[in-house]
UniProtKB/TrEMBL annotation:
Domain Calcineurin-like phosphoesterase, residue spans: 41-216
One Pfam family matching this protein: Metallophos_2
Organism: Roseovarius aquimarinus
Family: Belongs to the metallophosphoesterase superfamily. YfcE family.
Protein name: Metallophosphoesterase family protein
Amino acid sequence: MRWIDLGTQDAPLLLFGGPYSNLYALDALLEAGARAGIPTARMICTGDVVAYGAAPGETVARIRAAGCTVIAGNVERQLGAGEGDCGCGFSPGSTCDRLSAGWFAHADAAVSAEDRAWMADLPGMAVFRHQGARYAVIHGGARDVSRFIWECDAEEVFAEELAAIAEMVGPVDGVIAGHAGLPFVRQVGGATWINAGVIGMPPHDGAPATRFAVLEHGRARIERLDYDHAGARAAMVAAGLTQGYDRALETGYWPSEDVLPAVLRVATSDRG
């Protein structure tokens, strides 16, 4: 795995994952950063720039022009290598696996050869120092880019990842990750694990707002991102992306829960 060292970053950092081809959400995030006085050079994306949404090419162009640091997600690796599926880690035959075929075909047709070369060259990990602590940025897992890591996972899961990261880049005090789509901050094994969430899809909580994180004064906080979700959904419908993720932008609920641990699933009766 290629990794990069971002040096010392003591000023506030904006951390985000999964733009997911949702140009409306990415533009809202860049505006939120500007309002907070955080330049794009201090924004770090945990990957999956491209996924469910209507504007894969435009979203890649916007994030490249902005100059944010981007870590390779599973989708970037797959598209960069010319593979035929998203490599998301969904169980074969699951609802998530079947639904991914539609949006991946749309993304595969939309990204250019230049975009694919950019994706193929993205680092798999970044490290930096912030307020005296050392952090690593990954997508899913250190050795498995599509590994889902949830807040409710056993401490052994986090310990395994921290050990793998230490083998690759040396010990760290914190990890910034994405992929799973649900944001959280958890203290584990003497380190802080920060999942910044994703901006392109709501965190399965019944509201359309998405999430990002800010690392400031040595602490991470999860922030809410409001954006024109109705416009994003309309763009998906116009593009024929109506497998259920379009509705999720408005309802706040994913079209399938089969990727989620049982404790994180929402009973149908509890959905408004």
